[in-house]
């Protein structure tokens, strides 16, 4: 048996084991003392525990399909299958010369063929792979597919059938914008008109400040003092003054004319409720201003909305809108709604309102009825009663009665249906405001029983009070007059 001679390192001459690739002392290569390696050289698989340089591929080829004997230049071949030796890789063989076709080494099955030869120096290298993270523009998934060889391409400018169509703008958007613009224009015009209406100097009046003054040259007075009293719907009105101006500062409705300049008349007054009940009327429906040409104007506003409650005393005013200034001394006022007994009088001191005042007459007429002694004490004709105004064409007639029932007459039962009032051809029953309760049951020996009957009837110069007949009672009647009956 031959003995293997020990191996030493050519640099440091340290002993090394047989087949060892590097010196254990200095690390020098024991298999290639010159230190030169081919760039693509594959290490031999002979020997155990062999080490390879970092740029040398280790032994152990990847599994190849049967019949494949060649590999790309950078892949190590298995022993015995190299193109140069027919089976093993020749470590001393130089790299393939420049210009050697790549096809000499062949293309492994499963890899795409390439005409690029890294050793030729002339062929165009393949394009680099696409980097999904590079931010480079990607193909449009919604665009037209790339043309294929022999495929017909439409002429330039032909609409793309794959493109997303543009949405058409709806005309409703323009309609809405037009409406918004129109509203803004109208609001702006209204604000301008209001600012014009409230501009101007001020004049102080009884019911508040007014502006403008005598726009028609001052031929008419701006204010006239009045001292006149009249009662409507149980409310006593005392008129104090009449004013006119192009607006009143405490009336937001005055001065708001959009067509032409207006003139406003204000009637100032004090009012007192003479009844214990409230008067439910509206000033806008119960006041009318009568102009010199006998036309009438309704109020636009009043300080108070409705009539005062029982016992209330307060100051109030009512405003009217006119086209031009007016002679305040020739104005009249009409009180009462259209379905009420209206009262018309001049708005000046000393105006005749006597016909609207209560007309009372003392009668003291004695008569017999139901075995008792009766007295018609007095009668009153009036346009109002207990917070209400009489209806159109009517007045209230109030009669006060007194009765005595002698001892031997026994008890008398009358109740409220025993009395009627005749005015012309009209016969009326007492209203609910009457006070005849003491006459319902009259005991024998009762004296000085008092009661008042209220009738709403057409006015007349002569009235007849009728007492109806009943069981064991004979009817009777009493005629009387109140003034001229107007």
Comma- or semicolon-separated keywords:
mainly beta, elongated
Largest sheet geometry: 5 strands, antiparallel
Order of helices and strands: EEHEEEEEEHEEEEEEEEEEEEEEEEEE
Unreliable residue stretches? 41-93, 98-105, 195-217
**Tell me, what's the shape?**
elongated
What is the count of β-strands?
26
Helix/strand class: mainly beta
| CA distance, first residue to last residue | 173 Å
How many helical stretches? 2
- Work out the strand percent: 25-35%
Radius of gyration, in Å, reads: 64 Å
Tell me the helix content. under 10%
pLDDT averaged over residues: 76
Q: Trace the largest sheet across and list its strands.
A: 5-6-8-12-11
Q: How would you sum up this structure, described in words?
A:
There is one protein chain. It is built from two helices and 26 strands. The longest helix is centred in the middle third of the chain and has 27 residues, at 171-197. It has 486 residues and is mainly β. The chain is elongated and about 180 Å long. The strands form eight sheets. A five-stranded antiparallel beta sheet has the order 5-6-8-12-11. It has helices spanning 171-197, 283-286, and strands at residues 7-8, 15-16, 202-204, 209-211, 223-232, 235-245, 247-248, 263-273, 287-290, 296-297, 299-302, 313-322, 332-335, 343-346, 359-369, 372-382, 384-385, 388-389, 395-404, 412-413, 419-423, 426-428, 441-442, 449-457, 462-467, 476-481. Strand 25 (462-467) and strand 26 form a beta hairpin.
Task: State the gist of this model.
With 486 residues, this protein is mainly β.
């Amino acid at each position: 048996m031959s003995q293997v001679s020990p191996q030493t390192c050519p640099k440091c001459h340290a002993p090394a084991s047989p087949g060892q690739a590097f010196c254990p002392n200095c690390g020098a290569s024991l298999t290639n003392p010159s230190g030169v390696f081919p760039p693509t050289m594959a290490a031999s698989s002979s020997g155990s525990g062999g080490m390879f340089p970092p740029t040398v591929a280790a032994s152990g080829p990847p599994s190849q399909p049967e019949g494949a004997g060649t590999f790309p230049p950078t892949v190590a071949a298995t022993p015995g299958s190299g193109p140069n030796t027919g089976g093993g890789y020749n470590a001393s063989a130089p790299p393939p010369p420049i210009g050697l076709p790549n096809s000499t080494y062949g293309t492994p099955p499963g890899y795409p063929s390439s005409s690029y030869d890294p050793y030729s120096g002339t062929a165009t290298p393949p394009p680099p792979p696409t980097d999904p993270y590079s931010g480079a523009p990607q193909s449009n998934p919604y665009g037209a597919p790339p043309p294929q060889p022999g495929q017909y391409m439409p002429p330039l400018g032909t609409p793309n059938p794959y493109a997303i169509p543009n949405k058409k703008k709806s005309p409703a958007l323009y309609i809405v914008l037009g409406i918004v613009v129109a509203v803004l224009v109208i609001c702006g015009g209204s604000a301008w008109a209001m600012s014009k209406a409230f501009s101007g100097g001020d004049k102080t009046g009884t019911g508040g400040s007014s502006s403008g003054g005598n726009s028609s040259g001052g031929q008419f007075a701006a204010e006239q003092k009045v001292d006149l009293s009249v009662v409507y719907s149980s409310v006593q009105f005392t008129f104090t003054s009449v004013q006119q101006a192009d607006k009143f500062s405490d009336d937001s409705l005055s001065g708001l004319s959009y067509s032409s300049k207006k003139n406003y008349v204000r009637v100032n007054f004090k009012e007192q409720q003479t009844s214990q009940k409230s008067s439910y009327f509206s000033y806008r429906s119960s006041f009318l201003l009568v102009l010199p040409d006998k036309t009438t104007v309704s109020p636009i506003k009043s300080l108070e909305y409705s009539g005062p409650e029982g016992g209330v005393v307060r100051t109030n005013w009512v405003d009217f809108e006119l086209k031009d200034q007016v002679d305040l001394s020739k104005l009249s006022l009409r009180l009462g709604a259209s379905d009420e007994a209206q009262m018309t009088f001049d708005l000046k001191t000393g105006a005749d309102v006597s016909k609207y005042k209560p007309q009372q007459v003392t009668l003291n007429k004695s008569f017999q009825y139901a075995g008792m002694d009766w007295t018609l004490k007095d009668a009153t004709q009036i346009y109002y009663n207990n917070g209400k105004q009489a209806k159109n064409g009517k007045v209230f007639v109030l009669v006060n009665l007194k009765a005595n029932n002698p001892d031997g007459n026994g008890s008398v039962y009358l109740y409220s249906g025993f009395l009627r009032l005749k005015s012309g051809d009209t016969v009326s029953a007492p209203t609910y405001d009457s006070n005849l309760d003491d006459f319902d049951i009259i005991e024998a020996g009762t004296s000085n029983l008092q009661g008042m009957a209220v009738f709403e009837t057409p006015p007349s110069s002569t009235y007849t009070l009728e007492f109806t007949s009943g069981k064991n009672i004979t009817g009777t009647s009493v005629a009387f007059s109140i003034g001229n009956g107007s």
